[in-house]
Amino acid sequence: MNLNISYLMLILLSTSVFSQEQPIEKITVTASRASQKVLDVASNISWLDDESLRLIEQQHINQALVRIPGAWISRGNGQEHLTAIRSPVLTGTGGCGAFFIAQDGISLRAPGFCNVNQLFDANTEQASSLEVLRGPASTMYGSNAVHGVINVLTPNPFDTQQSSVSLSLGPHDYTRGMFSLSTTGEQHGFLLYGNVTKDAGYLQDSGYEQQKVNLIHQYQGGKWQIKNVLAVSNLKQETAGFISGFEVYKDASLKRQNPNPEAFRDSQSMRVYSQISYVENDTTSFTITPYIRSTDMQFLQHYLPWQPIEDNSHSSVGVQTQFQKYYGDLSWLSGFDVDYTQGQLTETQAEDFSPTLPAGIHYDYKVNATVYSPFAQLQWTATQQLILSAGVRYEHTKYDYDNRLSTGSACAQGIENCRFTRPEDQVVDYDEWSYQVNANYALTNNYRLYAQYSTGYRAPQATELFRLQAGQTVAELDAEDVNSIELGLRGKTDSLFYDVTLFSMQKDNFIFQDTDRQNISNGETSHRGIELVLSYHWQYFYASANGTFAKHQYDSNLTLSRINIKDNEIDTAPEHMGSAQLGWRTDSGSFIELEWVHQGNYYLDPENSAEYSGHNLLNLRTGWALNETLDIGVRVSNLTDEDYAERADFGFGSYRYFVGEFRSVYATVRYQY
């Protein structure tokens, strides 16, 4: 692997994820679906706590997750985004569903009905924590936990002692109001919080309005704990598309243009669930979490020249159960997850583009999906220094597909090479196993060596199976599989925390669309690298940084292009990226922080013939506590007004870019009572 040595030295000299908490006392619930000290975790784990999220005061989720090693949330227009965790940025066929993205462990979208933008459904701005697992975690989370897990944890009302309101203002008519109302008694706590955002957009005709509201009731009495959660979100967005032309993002006369002023995205989501837990003498616990999930989205596919409109929705009911028992040096964790979903999709085109791309309804289908999945994990404290664990999961997925249009071509009779094909009604099912074996060895009380072998899988998504093209009538797709090995070293002193992880992943049955526009699943890719997390604090000063150095390659003779691309680097997969922060923060909450964000160069096509050179950004954040109830903050993004692309692409014979935001100043006033 060719690593950028100067970048590595800068990371090592700087130092990672900002948190006022002592990492040794940090408790995570995402790594094993149970409370566990970070130092005892036998795999990688990263997090951003509520203080970090409040300091960042994000306008987009990518501004927060640049502090997580191995992760890149590529910013699209408005609240759109694409995700990369130990992976390239995944788009198109095979790109959706590679990540398990959840709120309190419940997937934001149903298995088989993912959306690459689904993080905008969650209230990440006011979460109590964002926890990220890098690499496969299907033993704990099932299908889609192939490249990683992002878990948005909601607050505990009993830990939220104050109510608050805030108002943020910024350029291009940006306004955001946030509120939090809290009340608690001896056994019951209530928390209502949310935010309302309006942004006219830094490109032409690119604004959005978004609302998120969460209501939490929590009961704690004796052996019982109950957490009831309602989460709703609404997004109405005018979307800006790519601008085309080599490095056009540097052209002051063109970079604010929106070639797709007609583009839009409307999305609504709702989740209701209840986490009911019973604990007996700290040795036995049982949790049952029934839930209801609903989403509805309509958008213009502006990235396609013929610009169809897609309308997709699904509604789910499900339940997660979990039992944990301690037997001296042994602990047993087992559970059973069930999800039933009714989903539908339509795609329509207003005007004829060509005889093979006709106006009208291209697709109109329903899919009923059933997923059930038992899992178990055994952990053994072999010695005072060594903890071993092993887990297994079986998952059954069934899709019952109902085509509500004529079967076959969507074009007029006699038209060959029609773009759109409607399969006949069918039932498709998958049976998958995943495994996990890991170890955590205490070199001393504060230094741990950990190792893990894990597998992940992803059942094909409904759109990959049933929204076919170019005469393909059956998509005989296998589930994607990943095998992963990682080795890490984690430790701390009074002022220093570090975490270094080496990883190697092999992905089989990669789903993609070949040059004949057929959905197939015989691709192989490899993903290898090192992730660094370092942080140092001294009195009121801190330095933090994270870095990723990775190689993502095609490992098979794929027909993604007209030439053999085996051993080529996967497009939109930087070899190196990361961020560093230098700051000062007082006990009263006043702070100042300078942040550097680095994005390395990457190829834009499988042939490795087009490239983006990467960029470096500086951000400045500061805030003052005027008194115990009132504070103000100012955030300057892109301090040096760098010309850059949030994401570069090469499609339809042209370089294409999502333009990065220009230098912008945001101010926030917050009142607590």
Automatic annotation (TrEMBL):
It is a multi-pass membrane protein. SUPFAM superfamilies: Porins. Residues 38-149 form the TonB-dependent receptor plug domain. Residues 1-19 form the signal peptide. It comes from the Bacteria. The keyword Iron applies. One of its GO terms (cellular component) is cell outer membrane. One of its GO terms (biological process) is iron ion transport. Keywords: Cell outer membrane, Ion transport, Iron, Iron transport, Membrane, Receptor, Signal, TonB box, Transmembrane, Transmembrane beta strand, Transport. It holds the Pfam family Plug. It is found in: Cell outer membrane. Belongs to the TonB-dependent receptor family. PANTHER family: FERRICHROME IRON RECEPTOR-RELATED, TONB-DEPENDENT OUTER MEMBRANE RECEPTOR. This is TonB-dependent receptor. It comes from Paraglaciecola psychrophila 170. The lineage of its organism: Bacteria, Pseudomonadati, Pseudomonadota, Gammaproteobacteria, Alteromonadales.
